[in-house]
Structure formats: structure tokens, C-alpha cells
């Protein structure tokens, strides 16, 4: 058993309390490799933002769980070396079983998500409660989920959103003992969150997606005041990345994300953790494609992964400073 405390990590308890009270959200950025981790840590150190390093089960398989743990430990030391100690959480994203959560807790994760959102309600409660009971023995915080996001989640494809039912939240959080709750109010995973026919055009001809269901968020907040809320699927799919990708041989069409103003509004409420993965993938891909197109003779990975890392860092700094409001809060 490796405790996250030995690795210099923190759980999310205090961070969420401060974020809810302070009207901002902590970034939860997914990582699978060294360049992503370097970009996340350097961006968050430079903007003095707390950060959640988020690892999916796919990332765990891709990068190797032992390596990931040492990378997170390295991230803590790297932040110190960069000159500013920021709180760093290592979080399992979309854990789908008790065993996976237990394994992560025993290998140094300070926070886990148990995603029982696709299960019948009582099964979701039972599974989440089981994970919480184990996690809390080790001071590890737990995120549960109620409601189903449209799109792909945990290899399950949902055609439409099943919004979180505000009447269920009190029962769910009290019976399970979770530390935070992921909800469904109109966000979804990936780079294709809306089709153009779901959108309207503004005066500049830009496609504007339907707004998030802030009415549901408000109802949830009324029932569990101050309780930490999590938003998954919160990439904004910046058009400049999509344009660059397509300009240099990519083929992404109709990719539309969550407008940043909506995320800013959510961050000011009890939403205290905002998950962003796809925007980072787009930023990296755009940078790599640009190098390949402009320098076809280049074959040193540092020459294309370096620019990808720079683009990522810029993106993450923008998120902490201009979208989530977590800059300066470390
Ligand atoms: O919510 C899913 C995250 O974007 C992780 O995606 O399972 O492909 O690593 P992944
Ligand atoms: P995006 O696909 O919108 O980046 O969402 C990521 C996420 O929710 C990870 O859990
Ligand atoms: Zn997610």
C-alpha cells in the first residue's frame, strides 16, 4: 500500500471547500503522458492554481499504473522545482468498479470517482457507498455521479442526456457519503457535443449551442447547499484548433463544445471541479499537424511534441485564468 501522502499529494476535501466558498472551480485535466503532465504542472504553477491530475482507466492501461504513480510524485517535485508549491490531487476518472477504485487507492491516488450513473439507482447507491467506506478509511475523497451525459461515457453510448433529478440528490449524498457529485445538465464528453441543427447562429454567423440547464443546477444547489458539484464533459472545442487541424490535413467536422462563458458561470456556483480532456487533445493535435505539414523532414519527436506541450500549457493557463477562476488560489 502506497499512501498518497507519501507522494506529496492531497485529497480534494479542502480544495473543494475553498472553491465553493470562493466561487471558482478546480481544473481536472486528464493526462496520459509526460508532455501533458509537464504542461499541466507548469501552467498551474505559473498561474498559482491548484490542480487535479486526472487518470482514466484507459490512461492507466496506456501509460502503466506504476509509471503514472511515479509521474504524479514527480509532478509534486517538479512544481517545487519550478518555484511554487501548488496542491496536487491524483484522481481516478470514471472508475467503474470497487476493485479498480481500491487498486488506485492502494497505489497512491488521493481521490477516486466511482461512476455508477448507468446503473439502476439503488445499485449506484450501493456501489458508491462501498467505495466511500473503503476510501474514507484511507482519507481518500470520492466523487459519485447521478444522471447520464449524452454521448460516449465509459464505453456506453447514450443518445440523449438523462439530466440529474434534483429530488434524488439529498438521498444519494447522505446514503453514500460521497465528497462530491458529478451531475448531468447538458455537457457531454468528446469534441462533438452538439450537432449544428441543435444550435442557433448568432449575429456573426457563429453556431451557438443550447445553454446548460442552470435551472437544474440551481435546484440541486437548493437541496444540498454548498455541496461540491462536478461538471464532466466541459471542453469548449476552440474553433482555432479545429481550423488548424483541418488546414493541415485533419478531418474534423461539426465539432462544437461548451461556450466558455457558461463554464465561467458554472464555476461561480457550487460547481468546484471542471473536467477538461478533449481541448488538450485538440491543442496537441493541431500543433503536431502544423509541424508535420511545415517541416516534413522533421523526425525528432521533441520537435513536434515540444510545440504540442507549449500549446497545451497556453491552453491550461487560459483555463485557470480566464475560465475557471482558479488562478492565484493555490
Ligand atoms: O471522460 C473521459 C476522459 O476524456 C478520458 O478519456 O477514457 O479515452 O482516456 P479516455
Ligand atoms: P471533455 O471530453 O469535454 O474534455 O470531458 C472530459 C471529462 O469529462 C473527463 O472525465
Ligand atoms: Zn468525464
Explained architecture:
- The chain has one domain (about 5-325): TIM Barrel.
- It has helices at about 15-20, 35-45, 55-65, 65-80, 100-105, 120-135, 165-175, 215-225, 240-245, 260-265, 280-295, 300-325, and strands at about 25-30, 50-55, 90-95, 110-115, 140-145, 150-155, 155-160, 180-185, 200, 205-210, 230, 270-275.
- The longest helix is centred in the C-terminal third of the chain and has 24 residues, at about 300-325.
- About 45% of the residues lie in helices and about 15% in strands.
- The chain is an alpha/beta fold and about 325 residues long.
- It is built from twelve helices and twelve strands.
- Helix 6 (about 120-135) links the parallel strand 4 and strand 5 (about 140-145).
- The mean pLDDT is about 95.
- 1,3-dihydroxyacetonephosphate binds near residues 232, 234, 235 and 276.
The low-confidence runs, each spanning 5 or more residues with pLDDT under 50, are none
- Please list the strands of the largest sheet in the order they lie side by side: 1-2-3-4-5-8-11-12
Order of helices and strands: HEHEHHEHEHEEEHEEEHEHHEHH
CATH topology: TIM Barrel
- Main sheet properties: 8 strands, parallel, barrel
Amino acid at each position: 500500500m502506497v499512501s498518497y501522502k507519501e507522494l506529496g499529494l492531497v485529497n480534494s476535501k479542502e480544495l473543494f471547500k475553498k472553491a465553493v466558498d470562493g466561487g471558482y472551480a478546480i481544473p481536472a485535466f486528464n493526462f496520459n503522458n509526460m508532455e501533458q503532465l509537464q504542461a499541466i504542472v507548469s501552467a498551474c504553477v505559473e498561474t498559482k492554481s491548484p490542480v487535479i491530475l486526472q487518470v482514466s482507466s484507459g490512461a492507466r492501461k496506456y501509460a502503466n499504473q506504476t509509471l503514472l504513480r511515479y509521474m504524479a510524485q514527480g509532478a509534486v517535485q517538479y512544481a517545487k522545482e519550478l518555484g511554487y508549491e501548488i496542491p496536487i490531487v491524483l484522481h481516478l476518472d470514471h472508475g467503474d468498479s470497487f476493485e479498480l477504485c481500491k487498486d488506485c487507492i492502494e497505489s497512491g491516488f488521493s481521490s477516486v470517482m466511482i461512476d455508477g450513473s448507468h446503473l439502476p439507482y439503488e445499485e449506484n447507491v450501493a456501489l458508491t457507498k462501498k467505495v466511500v467506506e473503503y476510501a474514507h478509511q484511507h482519507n481518500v475523497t470520492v466523487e459519485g455521479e447521478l444522471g447520464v451525459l449524452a454521448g460516449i461515457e465509459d464505453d456506453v453510448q447514450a443518445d440523449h442526456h438523462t439530466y440529474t433529478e434534483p429530488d434524488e440528490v439529498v438521498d444519494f449524498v447522505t446514503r453514500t457519503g460521497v465528497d462530491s457529485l458529478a451531475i448531468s445538465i447538458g455537457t457531454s464528453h468528446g469534441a462533438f457535443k452538439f450537432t449544428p441543427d441543435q444550435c442557433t447562429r448568432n449575429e456573426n454567423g457563429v453556431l451557438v449551442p443550447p445553454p446548460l440547464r442552470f435551472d437544474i443546477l440551481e435546484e440541486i444547489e437548493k437541496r444540498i447547499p454548498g455541496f461540491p458539484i462536478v461538471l464532466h464533459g466541459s471542453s469548449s472545442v476552440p474553433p482555432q484548433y479545429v481550423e488548424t487541424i483541418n488546414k493541415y490535413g485533419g478531418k474534423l467536422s461539426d465539432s462544437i463544445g461548451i461556450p466558455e462563458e457558461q463554464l465561467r458561470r458554472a464555476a461561480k456556483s457550487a460547481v468546484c471541479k471542471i473536467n477538461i480532456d478533449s481541448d488538450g487533445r485538440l491543442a496537441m493535435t493541431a500543433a503536431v499537424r502544423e509541424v508535420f505539414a511545415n517541416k516534413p523532414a522533421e523526425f525528432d519527436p521533441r520537435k513536434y511534441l515540444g510545440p504540442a506541450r507549449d500549446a497545451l500549457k497556453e491552453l491550461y493557463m487560459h483555463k485557470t485564468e480566464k475560465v475557471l477562476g482558479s488562478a492565484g488560489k493555490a
